[in-house]
Design goal:
alpha+beta; 16 strands; four-stranded antiparallel beta sheet; eight-stranded mixed beta sheet; 2 domains; about 375 residues
Length: about 375
């Protein structure tokens, strides 16, 4: 708990400057190549002011918006996973010398970072990754050096379904600071940690009135009522366990390209593969970890061939794990309802529609869970 109540910030430059003065690199949303992407920023001008997003199944477009507002966009193709769990990372390198091989840790020291503009769905996703990867040395070291500035969502997109995924557009925990963007381009700010409170005390602000707080809460509540998608109102773990042999999987397979886009843009998918390389002399070797996808045919390769050699089996594995067996492994769902997998699927496959289709069928496996 913190002692400082909600305050109003006239803008974001002072806050970003204070973060940088603390020796933190600030990573936030910006515009590149027609999309909202994450990059290191040196001031508020780098934020995507005046940008809205048009998002549907297989569709993502930037549109003009209010020039005063920086957070009227929805989730872009990148999540904070790329910062916490990099897509490609050298684990170690070894070089041959007179006294044998010298092995060096491949990772660079973790930087002091501020994650700026983290949506509530992505905040939940960071919590999921903390649960899954938090005991790993490299992940834990990066995570320990991060400060999180969350932003409440007041503009949900057409593929958003965070409410029915168990969350909502408002950040409730896991942040150091939380912002709510107001229609005039000012911000209601609140602290969620002692470090966040100390930071907020250093920037120009004015006390927020009860009316200011109520208006911000109302805007967030209204966003919760404007979600573009919903999940079936049923126990998805039981639903998926009872539909292992459903014809819907073959229907999906006729459309699915097995490209793995859904796993790459997902903020919680965490699978990796490890590759060893050596130079032509044999005197230098490296081990690299890279993101992997369960849609890759070789992902389940064992002696004799892949376990899941068809696209319907691979899609079933992904969807069943995300919404079903993730509970068995980690005690929670692997989906936060950000909708990225829907928008960035090149053929527009919609996980919510597929789950609704399964829910409409009688269970093919009445035995349900093993």
């Amino acid at each position: 708990m913190t002692d400082l109540g909600p305050v109003l910030l006239p803008g974001l430059d002072d806050l970003i400057a204070a973060l940088r003065a603390d020796g933190r690199a600030v990573v936030g949303p910006t515009v590149r190549d027609g999309a909202i992407v994450l990059a290191e920023i040196d001031g508020a001008a780098r934020l995507p002011y005046g940008r809205r997003t048009e998002v549907e199944a297989g569709t993502y477009r930037l549109r003009p918006g209010d020039e005063r507002l920086a957070f009227t966009h929805t989730s872009g193709p990148q999540s904070w996973k790329q910062v916490l769990h990099p897509p490609r990372e050298r684990l170690w390198s070894a070089t041959s010398g007179k006294d044998g091989f010298t092995v060096e840790d491949g990772g660079s020291p973790p930087r002091r970072l501020a994650l700026f503009g983290v949506r509530s769905c992505d905040l939940r996703a960071i919590g999921v990754l903390d649960h899954v990867l938090g005991d790993g040395g490299r992940y834990a070291a990066r995570r320990a050096n991060m400060l999180i500035v969350a932003v409440n969502c007041t503009e949900p997109g057409g593929t958003c379904f965070c409410v029915s995924a168990g969350g909502g557009p408002g950040a409730d925990t896991g942040y150091d600071l939380v912002l709510t963007e107001r229609p005039d381009g000012t911000y209601l700010a609140g602290a969620g940690s002692a470090e966040g409170e100390a930071l907020l005390r250093r920037v120009p602000s004015a006390p927020a009135s009860d009316g200011d707080v109520a208006a911000a809460a109302s805007a967030v509540d209204a966003a919760a009522d404007r979600m573009g998608r919903t999940l079936p109102e049923t126990d998805l773990r039981t639903l998926l366990a009872g539909h292992r042999e459903d014809a819907q999987w073959a229907d999906v397979a006729e459309r699915c390209l097995a490209c793995g886009n859904c796993t790459m843009v997902c903020p919680t998918c965490f699978c990796t593969s490890v590759t060893d390389t050596t130079d032509l002399t044999g005197e230098h070797a490296e081990r690299w970890e890279t993101w992997e996808s369960c849609f890759d045919l070789d992902f389940s390769l064992l002696h004799g061939g892949p376990v899941r050699h068809t696209r319907d089996a691979r899609y079933r594995q992904w969807l069943s794990h995300k919404f079903g067996t993730w509970h068995d492994q980690f005690g929670e769902s692997g989906c936060v309802g950000c909708g990225r997998c829907i928008a960035w699927c090149p053929v527009g496959i919609d996980v919510t529609a597929e789950l609704h289709a399964l829910h409409a069928h009688p269970p093919a496996d009445p035995g349900g869970l093993p």
